[in-house]
Amino acid sequence: MPDYKIAPSILSANFARLGEEVDNVLAAGADWVHFDVMDNHYVPNLTIGPMVCKALRNHGVTAPIDVHLMVEPVDDMIRMFADAGATYITFHPEASKHVDRSLQLIQSLGCKAGLVFNPASSLDAAKYLLDKLDMILLMSVNPGFGGQKFIPATLGKLTEARKLIDDSGLDIRLEIDGGVTKDNIREIAKAGADSFVAGSAIFNADDYAEVIKAMRAELAQ
Ligand code: DX5
Ligand code: ZN
């Protein structure tokens, strides 16, 4: 079985008590914290920045923090999030003028680098950069909001990305983001994903551990 990772998106957490929410979801069995950064420019919504990432580290969070930048441009935010304790930093290729340089910047600051592909984007931008990628993140909803429905065409795209990664022989994670639930996670894993972002499916539930356990049970099938 692949080394599956479950990454709850704190976009759906209660921001009035964020530290406690992150502690609870990690205690409930989550592997990573998925941290959605929106700038009301690249996407029509506004969320949280590096200060909040740093605050979670100061609060005692040691789990990997998976920072998903939905901002344009990206380089200043890359520097600030690396300083704030990010583990992964991913960005959308169209939000950087020099994608290769931005990926190098992430890795030079000691973080793991990834590219994010919107539902309508082809994977072409990843092709010549595979050696600089630690992660490919496929959006299975349009970026900007939690609680949307999984777009089924993403399944074929996952298979395509899985082949690209396997053919390269490189160690690159394949993450999926948007509309993931315990009811579709198995199908998504079969299509090739090994890392799963889930916001509303986890944080809207009464018992986080129960949902994460149900997701892992589906992945073990
Ligand atoms: C959307 C974000 C996602 C989102 C996922 O732009 O990147 O991480 O919060 O939320 P759900 O799991 O509710 O689709
Ligand atoms: Zn995200």
Automatic annotation (TrEMBL):
How does the cofactor attach, per the note? Binds 1 divalent metal cation per subunit.
> Catalyzes what?
D-ribulose 5-phosphate = D-xylulose 5-phosphate
Which GO cellular component term is one of those annotated? cytoplasm
Query: Which principal EC class is assigned to this enzyme?
Result: isomerase
Q: Active site located where?
A: D36, D177
Which keywords does UniProt give here?
Carbohydrate metabolism, Cobalt, Isomerase, Manganese, Metal-binding, Zinc
**Pfam families in alphabetical order:** Ribul_P_3_epim
Highest rank taxon of the organism = Bacteria
Pathway(s) annotated for this protein in UniProt? Carbohydrate degradation
Which GO terms fall under molecular function for this chain's record?
Answer: D-ribulose-phosphate 3-epimerase activity; metal ion binding
Where does the chain bind a divalent metal cation?
H34, D36, H68, D177
What is its biological role?
Answer: Catalyzes the reversible epimerization of D-ribulose 5-phosphate to D-xylulose 5-phosphate.
Q: What is this protein called?
A: Ribulose-phosphate 3-epimerase
Give the gene name: rpe
